[in-house]
Please model this.
Amino acid sequence: MIEVVYVSNGKEQKQYIHRLLERKAVQVLSWDRKITDRILSYSPEVAIFDVESLSYEELLEKMTIIKEMQPDIKIIFLVPTILEKEMYTMIDSQVDSILEKYQMKENELRQVINHLQHDYFYLPISVHKSLLERVQELKKTNFDIFYQKLTDNGIEISIKEAHVAYRVKEGLRNLNIASELGITEGTVKIHVSNLYRKLHIKGRRNMIEFLNNLKSDSFINKENKEFNVIS
Model:
């Protein structure tokens, strides 16, 4: 049976959490100055924090200590609603799953706990779109920085070749690059061949090392980029 601790400052939480996690061993703890030691004394596999009733900054501090002392513990945050800014902070803090307390479906918490044993990370479907959009934005920003490095180093390649070079740098195979860019694998091979010639490099490993070691003194300003794009 999975050992679970549930931490909250709210009243009547024992009945609430036992209803959600019937048939699981749950220790219900009230937040206090010694909460870290009390949680660790149980050596639980899962710790659930009701964020709505706790001090957020202090919670993150305590969670970091708990993770350091017991690295295998899985931590779940129950939040009233997920704000985008807080979501990224929570993810950065090494939390293992985030659930919207008042939007949970029946058995959802139990299912999430079971999934955590297989190292899955769970987010509510309501935030997936926002997170995916953020990932795409970061990918574009990273490519822009990479292209600026090419420009600063006097490397003149086409924008299509730059997109291929960026993915070669990331270690993708030709077939994966073709899938990401919506082109054929044969076209990718042509671009890679052109890159070898223009960069005066032989071998994919040497190209990856070269592209990853490019330096740049430029400051990328999102509102004012000037790239020498050759079509």
